[in-house]
Amino acid sequence: MPNITIEGPPIKELDKKRRFARELTEAAVKAYGLPKEAIIVLLKENSPENVSVGGELIVDRHQKSDKSS
After folding, report:
1. What parts of the chain have a pLDDT lower than 50?
2. Which ranges constitute the DSSP H helices of 10-57?
3. Cβ atoms of 51 and 60 closer than 8 Å
4. 3-68 adopts what CATH topology?
5. Burial (Cβ within 10 Å: 0-12, 13-18, ≥19) of residue 39
6. Quick one: how far is CA 11 from the chain centroid?
7. What is the DSSP letter of 57?
8. Nearest Cα to 41, choosing from 23, 27, 25?
9. How far apart are CA 58 and CA 69, in angstroms?
10. pTM of the shown model
């Protein structure tokens, strides 16, 4: 069973999340030639206070850009 794991920011709208999971599954079905029931999709959502880029939390980067606007 192929596993697809996506890590990224939260997707707030449940319909968008459903569509994303469905589209990832469809792409894997085409690539592997397996039934959709064999495809596992894991969406790991990380909030900005739990992710760092270049040693700086993303939440802090957003706050800086909001202040400079």
Report:
1. none
2. 14-32
3. no
4. Macrophage Migration Inhibitory Factor (3.30.429)
5. buried
6. 7
7. E
8. 25
9. 17
10. 0.80
